[in-house]
Specification:
By secondary structure, the chain is α+β, with helices and mostly antiparallel strands. It contains 14 helices and ten strands. It is globular.
Length: 343
């Protein structure tokens, strides 16, 4: 005799995902272990071996990226190199090539733009795509996602994981559910199903300090946060509380922002989010150089020059620090930007 189904189980079985009811169809394309995968592609003898990109091997060196062969040992991005080697002594350490990574990133963005003009690079190895207008041509999100994955594999010899949903938050969260080389499609019902029971720390942009703050007011899981009254969150956490509430409920009205230059644009910027806090100077310098290079390319594309250079740092508690430097002459040279920012 079969056991009676709970109301929850019945609802899950009856649910049918229908992307045609969505206002928008958003992809989040996230490359798999990008830096490490590039090194393995360029050095086939590394295939199947535990590879770590990062260094140096001292008290400040951290893991910038690591191959999936290191994951069973508990190695993760942002971890001190020494700790990573203690967990995985056989790991091969590679310092990496930011120039190569930047080239592959540019190739990736160019490739994605062939599927839709609505491409928003989010970091060196990930991007949001608004493919709403492409559905008539490609038939379904899953078909288009497979075409993109095949194109990336054929052109770059790399794999990616793609999250598909009706907004950027849910697409971003979906892309990490099936890695590497995965494809996950979520609507709001499935989003709650997947993430609701999980710790609040699983949410995009929620760091350790934020988790402590949530725990103090009795919020342990994503479901707890999703059901908390807005006024309580505002009282305890300010505007960040409302932001977190939207994350928990998968609510996001922000658009995929193309990086085309507008004639009246006053500033040009790029930003990235690290998976973990880092004090590794070499890692931070590589990241800063990458961002400077991307800004410089957009300046040159628009035949613009810049005189004031800014760097913005945001902590996991969303505290933001900004520093500006004014150059003696306007320029589009990324090396000059770096020279100013490094001091």
């Amino acid at each position: 005799m079969n056991s009676p189904k709970t109301e929850h189980q019945a609802a899950h079985e009856l649910h049918k995902l229908d992307w045609r009811t969505w206002k928008r169809v958003i992809f989040h394309v996230d490359m798999d272990a990008f830096f490490a995968s590039i090194e393995i592609r360029n050095n086939p003898e590394l295939r199947g071996k535990p590879v770590i990109v990062g260094g140096p091997i001292d008290s400040r060196g951290v893991v910038s990226a690591c191959s999936y062969e290191t994951r069973p040992f508990g190695v993760r991005s942002g971890m001190p190199i020494r700790q990573a080697l203690q967990r995985c002594p056989e790991a091969i350490i590679i310092s990496g090539s930011l120039k190569q990574y930047g080239y592959d990133s540019a190739e990736l963005m160019n490739l994605l733009s062939k599927f839709t003009p609505q491409v928003e690079p989010f970091s060196i190895d990930e991007a949001f795509l608004d493919v709403t207008g492409s559905m008539r041509l490609h038939g379904s999100p899953s078909h288009l996602a497979q075409l993109i994955k095949e194109s990336i594999n054929n052109k770059l010899e790399l794999t990616c994981s793609i999250g598909v949903s009706e907004n950027k938050i849910m697409a971003k969260m979906a892309s990490k559910l099936d890695k590497p080389n995965g494809l996950t499609i979520l609507d709001s019902f499935l989003y709650r199903e997947k993430f609701g029971p999980q710790p609040v720390s699983v949410l995009w942009g929620i760091g350790k300090k934020s988790v402590v703050g949530f725990n103090k007011i009795g919020i342990q899981t994503v479901n707890d946060l999703a059901k908390t009254k807005p006024e309580i969150l505002i009282h305890k956490l300010g505007k960040f509380g409302l932001h977190a509430l939207a994350l928990a409920n998968g609510i996001d009205d922000s658009e995929v922002r193309r990086l085309d230059l507008l004639p009246d644009e006053k500033s040009i910027s790029h930003e990235t989010t690290f998976p973990h806090d880092s004090l590794d100077k070499a890692f931070l310098k590589r990241a800063l150089l990458s961002l400077s290079g991307r800004v410089a390319r957009r300046l040159r594309k628009g035949t613009f020059l810049a005189r004031t250079v800014s760097v913005k740092v945001r902590s996991d508690s969303f505290k933001t620090i900004t520093r500006d430097k004014t150059l003696s002459k306007p320029t589009s040279d990324p090396k000059l930007f770096m020279k100013q920012l490094a001091h």
